[in-house]
Amino acid sequence: MANLTNGYGHTESFVKIPTVKFTKLFINGEFVDSVSGKTFETVDPRTEEVIAEIAEANKEDVDIAVKAAREAFDFGPWPRMPGAERAKIMLKWAELIEQNVEEIAALDTIDGGKLFSWCKAVDVPEACNILRYYAGSADKIHGDVFKTSRNLHLYSLMEPVGVVGHIIPWNFPTVMFFAKVSPALAAGCTMVIKPAEQTPLSSLFYAHLAKLAGIPDGVINVVLGFGSTAGAAISSHMDIDAVSFTGSTETGRKIMQAAALSNLKPVSLELGGKSPVLIFDDADVDKAVDLALFGILHNKGEICVAFSRVFVQEGIYDEFEKKVVEKAKTWVVGDPFDPKVQQGPQTSKEQFDKILSYIEHGKSEGASLLTGGKPVGNKGYYVEPTIFANVKEDLLIAQEEIFGPVMVLSKFKTTEDAIKKANSSKYGLAAGIVTKNLDIANTVSRSIRAGIIWINCFFAFDIDCPFGGYKMSGFGRDYGLEALHKYLQVKSVATPIYNSPWL
């Protein structure tokens, strides 16, 4: 089984756990209780203990937040100030986040079980980078002037779409917060943000820092609560102009339906995945093992682009299987504050139970369990790194998104066979290719129907590179200028020209 550290109950020896400062809704620049006075618990997945009671928003609270955002958009300074002024405030926000990196990283660790070292070194700095990238674009939003065939002066304007609803997932609460909020801010939009009920703490801290940075009241509003109430209210609200969502395909369907039945607001959906990685005979087996294992165990498998389907060509399959199992058994699972730990707890009891249920399905349907498959320890939501082999393509574990540390391992014969297997999924978010052959890399990367293809790498994102899915993995793009443009509308303006010497 995986190695288990004995860091339980001794987190203070690694880092000082901060006191939770913010637990209320953030509306119109103030932290407020919910209208109903209801709260819900946010739980530490390391210990299964309650961290704090969080104000629970319902439709009435969403209405109040939307009204504040609408006032800020229709009458406030944010959409009307020059882009360069918006940029200054966004840059100040990034500075404040950097000054609080330790506290923010610790919040995401106690709330979501994420590795503290990763949050501190990657997630929070990435948030600052995203803010700065879109701050740099805020004063470069412009339309076009058209050369017409008639006596007209025709030009276009790029205008902010209005009030945006952002619904944030629980697996990357910091990065996804800023992947959505930053381009919308740069465009001049105002917004209502609903973080996942499992991981609300860092979003509230960011709202606090936004106020300190000078973002006007009503521009950013954070409502806390559940998808069936607060999330549904955002999706169906007649005064929200667009919705951006990252999460499950099932919830994405509901958001699309609510948007269609309300005011036909545009939606952007980054949904589930069952991403394949194809490892060819010419690959360096040791490097391929490292890549495939990181691809499924990074962030304890709670990642939409995880390499959950691993296809290995017949010539190296046996060697690969032996080495990947050996390495998985050495993977260190434990307290995510411990710098030696490679995998923390699953984010919630619900997700923990779901993963174990999928593992039982795999065993009962005849797949070969090579390693793992059990909880780790007696406290916390820890799951062993798990590898299945001899998995038929129609099995549940080969088709459904597990969202946990569970690898499904299979072999293939030819390049054509590999492409067919890779595409035999309703999802199309990401894929990997491991080969030294440029022809294979080019052919396969153009043949797989997925939004991003990684050749001899994994998790190779860049702020300037758009990211999103094919098929049931959704539509719309985060990152890059494509993300900025989804928060803008094009308006064309025509003026007649009389007696002009030229057109």
Structural features, described:
- 38% of the residues lie in helices and 21% in strands.
- Strand 17, helix 12 and strand 18 (406-412) form a beta-alpha-beta unit.
- With 503 residues, it is an alpha/beta fold.
- The protein has a seven-stranded mixed beta sheet, with helices on both faces. Strands 10-9-8-11-12-23 form a six-stranded mixed beta sheet, sandwiched between helices. The protein has a three-stranded antiparallel beta sheet with strand order 6-7-24, with no helix packed on it.
- The relative contact order is 0.15.
- Helix 7 (227-235) crosses helix 8 (249-261).
- The protein has helices at 59-75, 83-99, 101-112, 116-137, 173-187, 201-213, 227-235, 249-261, 285-297, 314-328, 349-364, 396-399, 415-423, 438-447, 480-485; strands at residues 3-4, 25-27, 30-32, 39-44, 49-55, 145-146, 152-160, 163-167, 190-194, 220-222, 242-246, 267-270, 276-279, 309-313, 332-333, 368-371, 386-389, 406-412, 427-428, 430-434, 452-455, 470-471, 474-475, 488-496.
- The protein contains 15 helices and 24 strands.
For the biggest sheet, the summary is: 7 strands, mixed
What is the first-to-last residue Cα distance?
76 Å
Number of strands: 24
Mean pLDDT: 96
Summarize the amount of helix as a percent range.
Answer: 25-40%
Poorly predicted runs are 5-10
**Helix and strand composition category:** alpha/beta
